[in-house]
């Protein structure tokens, strides 16, 4: 528009000549402008149309975007919800796992408590069962004792009846004697011209002699009956006590063997020019035997205590590696001190095992030392414990003081702990030790009586002596030479196999029993019984053996058939 004004102004200034031309130009310009304006309008319409379309497109896109956003939000919400739900499930699972763990832990604790309670109940049940068994045994023993008492009462009743019968017989005889006395007096007066007093004295003398004779016969019968019953009761008590006690049998030899880690150590034990071995033997009082036998050293001594000290000391020296005279003396002295403590502890444990807590502490050493003393290779401590148990059981069965008998049995060989050192009979040495440390009088009497040094003043002392004899005579208690033992077993089987119809024989129970297998087709039961007696008789005649040998003959028939 400015350009048009400028052009008009120029045209006017130039003159009117060109008015027409200008008009034409202006019209032309106007038309062009109109056309441009129309184009602009069209363009504007197109732009508006495009804007509308673009707006609609943007709106649609916005709506779509909004829908997408909503959907995304919904999906996000769903995902979030799912995550929250998954997290909740996870937390729930974790909570459940924690609860399960806690429950499992609590369950285990409860199971442990229940298990402990069950074990406690089981222990209580076992204790009750044991006590019931003990009560049953006691009741059985009481019933047996009652039966024995009833049996004795019946025997006493029989004896009383016999005595009454004898008294009646005596009364009848007295009456007969009175009637005979009158006749005898008259006869004496008539024949011998005796006075009444002289005849009476003579008659009384004869009646007294006859009465004494009758009374002696009755007393003898009663004594024999009592002796038979006493012997039967004593055998039953002894057998019961022996069966209830099953002690271990130990055999002690005069040598001990020490194993060496290598054969080279022997030279170090001997030492330069034998100085180590001489120092060891002087310190311990044993003989150390080092020969060609590989990896062992033999310790020889009659004294088990010295041998044990020497063995322990040598083992420590070998383990330490320092072997010379000074070290040997040091180790031996230390082992001796430890052995003294061990002996005292062993004695104390033995007293507690037997139920004695009032024993003088100094006696512990003597009792423990019995573990290193032997009698015919029988361990004296085990022997004294066995005697104590046997004597106590027999005392209980006889109604005597079990504790007295057991204490006497424990102390009866106490003198053997030092009798080899001081000399004299071990029973007298033991009695002196018991007196010195305040043992009761019944213990001293048991110690002296078991070897006949004084009479028995207590029945428990007699039981101790009987238990001592049982312990020493029990098969296996004292050592036999191995070869003689084997020879005896072979001889037993040879004797049995020499009989006809014997198929096999086995010597068992350390030679105290032999089992004989016979042919069932060739021998009847009666023949097997006679064969058993013949075998036992022949063993008695041809063989010397301790205790007794039980012969058991087995005759059996077997029939086998197969079902198809």
Radius of gyration over alpha carbons?
Answer: 60 Å
Number of domains: 5
CATH architecture of the largest domain: Orthogonal Bundle
Would you count the extended β strands for me? 8
Count of helical stretches? 16
Task: Explain this structure.
The protein is mostly helical. It folds into 5 domains: 2-105; 147-244, no CATH class; 249-342, Ribosomal Protein S8, Chain: A, domain 1, CATH 3.30.1370.10; 354-479, Hypothetical protein af1432, CATH 1.10.3210; 482-554, 2-Layer Sandwich (GMP Synthetase, Chain A, domain 3), CATH 3.30.300.30. 73% of the residues lie in helices and 6% in strands. The chain is built from 16 helices and 8 strands. The chain has helices at 2-14, 19-192, 196-244, 265-270, 275-284, 304-320, 325-353, 361-369, 380-398, 402-411, 419-422, 426-436, 441-449, 459-473, 482-497, 525-542, and strands at 255-259, 287-289, 296-300, 374-375, 378-379, 502-508, 513-518, 550-554. The strands form 3 sheets. The chain has a 3-stranded antiparallel sheet, covered by helices on one side. A hairpin with a 2-residue loop joins strand 4 (374-375) and strand 5 (378-379). The chain is elongated and about 235 Å long. The N and C termini lie far apart (138 Å).
